[in-house]
Write a structure and sequence with these properties.
This protein folds into 2 domains: 10-173, D-amino Acid Aminotransferase, Chain A, domain 1 (2-Layer Sandwich); 183-349, D-amino Acid Aminotransferase, Chain A, domain 2. Strand 10, helix 5 (205-220) and strand 11 (225-229) form a beta-alpha-beta unit. It has 8 helices and 19 strands. Strands 1, 2, 3, 4, 5, 6, 7, 8, 9 and 19 form a 10-stranded mixed sheet that branches. Strands 10, 11, 12, 13, 14, 15, 16, 17 and 18 form a 9-stranded mixed sheet that branches. With 364 residues, the protein is α+β, with helices and mostly antiparallel strands. It has helices at 20-26, 69-73, 96-109, 117-130, 205-220, 267-278, 290-299, 336-349, and strands at 10-11, 35-36, 39-46, 50-58, 76-78, 81-85, 91-94, 141-150, 162-172, 183-187, 225-229, 237-240, 244-249, 254-256, 283-285, 302-309, 313-322, 325-328, 360-363. Helix 3 packs across helix 4. Helices cover 25% and strands 29% of the residues. It catalyses: L-valine + 2-oxoglutarate = 3-methyl-2-oxobutanoate + L-glutamate; L-leucine + 2-oxoglutarate = 4-methyl-2-oxopentanoate + L-glutamate; L-isoleucine + 2-oxoglutarate = (S)-3-methyl-2-oxopentanoate + L-glutamate. Keywords: Amino-acid biosynthesis, Aminotransferase, Branched-chain amino acid biosynthesis, Pyridoxal phosphate, Transferase. It holds the Pfam family Aminotran_4. GO terms for molecular function: L-isoleucine-2-oxoglutarate transaminase activity; L-leucine-2-oxoglutarate transaminase activity; L-valine-2-oxoglutarate transaminase activity.
């Protein structure tokens, strides 16, 4: 797909965009989530007018009433996707239609108005186009963060009648600092991420806030991420604090926990399932018990494990840590299947591998 422009947006000129030399130096080694681009998109929704006031202009502070509903009742959702500069110089987004659909489903779960898919895509196209100079060369990308918050000033438990949709962007490098080849993951026995009937399948800030205490425990244990088990039995593997998980077995097959309301339906997760099946690999979307994982590691049946998500793409898991001690996956190094899938997915995203699925969305 190709962008046909952003004629619907009112454009506000930036009075003082970052000078080129300063921007170039900043995005040379941007880290993750700190080097923000010059502009942002805003769109307003009210009960009487629907979506209106589509604006793209200078990034700056938001003006909110201290009684804004988001501050009291947490009506907030967000997305994350990346813009890439291909080796041929084109600017592309990866599967933004999937982000648009998930954003609408998150809105539905949080009793918020659904932004039309085409307007979501147009908004990220518009910001990517105007801030394309912020896309780093090499392995970097422009991380786009669309989000929506309830802005109506009131104190009372009901869906708000006013919302603000915003898109900001950040030049990013690797998600994990130091360019780690594998990560270490803490298995949480005291905390759960989501329960059936809750908001686990929605991309809302509350899910991530609820994971932070467990993530702090993981960090204190020297781990990069935390793995959650199910809330009912504390038996079944679900997902990490911010990523889905895959297991790779000795026969080359893969397994990942099924989508069932408690796990975020990751776009990277879906892409990897389709890539692996295209290669002829068996991919099971089935429950997997943590006790079974320990048995499969001991027998040698489980050879690899990796986390996946938009920010980190694929992060091989070298070791799990528990209160009973460490569990080394395979030989503790990044596995061949994990690395091959990462190369293929990144190759498609950057235009170096043929896109047989039609996933790339080109920015004119």
């Amino acid at each position: 797909m190709t962008n046909h422009g952003s004629q619907g947006f009112r454009k506000v000129a930036h009075p003082s965009p970052m000078p080129d030399p300063e921007r170039i130096e900043l995005i040379r080694n941007p880290g993750f989530g700190r080097a923000f681009s010059d502009h942002m998109v805003t769109i307003t929704w009210t009960a009487d007018r629907g979506w209106h006031e589509m604006t793209i202009g200078p990034r700056g502070p938001l003006s909110l009433s201290p009684a804004a509903a988001v501050l009291h009742y947490a009506q907030e959702i967000f997305e994350g996707l990346k813009a890439y500069r291909t080796s041929s110089g084109e600017i592309t987004l990866f599967r933004p239609d999937m982000n648009a659909r998930r954003f609408a489903l998150s809105a539905e779960r949080l009793a918020m108005p659904a932004l039309p898919d085409n307007l979501f895509i147009e908004s990220v196209e518009a910001l990517t186009s105007i801030d394309r100079a912020w896309i780093p060369d090499g392995e970097g990308s422009l991380y786009l963060r669309p989000f929506m918050i309830a802005t109506e000033p009131f104190l009372g438990v009901r869906p708000a009648a006013e919302y603000l949709y915003v898109v900001i962007a950040s030049a990013v490098g690797p998600y994990f600092s130091g360019g780690k080849s594998t990560i270490t993951v803490w298995v949480s026995e005291d905390y759960t991420r989501a329960a059936k009937g809750g908001t686990g399948a929605a991309k809302c800030g509350g899910n991530y806030a609820a994971s932070l205490t467990a993530q702090a425990v993981a960090s204190a244990e020297g781990c990069d991420q935390v793995l959650f088990l199910d809330s009912a039995e504390h038996r079944w593997i679900e997902e990490l604090g911010g990523m889905n998980i895959f297991l790779v077995f000795e026969d080359g097959s893969l397994q990942t926990p099924p989508i069932g309301g408690t796990i975020l339906p990751g776009i990277t997760r879906d892409s990897l399932i389709r890539l692996a099946r295209e290669e002829g690999r068996v991919v099971r979307e089935e429950p997997y018990a943590f006790d079974q994982l320990k048995a499969d590691v001991a027998s040698g049946r489980l050879r690899e494990a990796f986390a996946c998500g938009t920010a980190a793409v694929i992060s091989p898991i070298g070791k799990l840590k528990t209160t009973d001690g460490p569990i080394v996956i395979g030989d503790g190094n990044a596995g061949e299947v994990s690395l091959a899938l990462k190369r293929k997915l990144v190759g498609i995203q950057r235009g170096d591998v043929p896109d047989s699925f039609g996933w790339l969305h080109k920015i004119a």
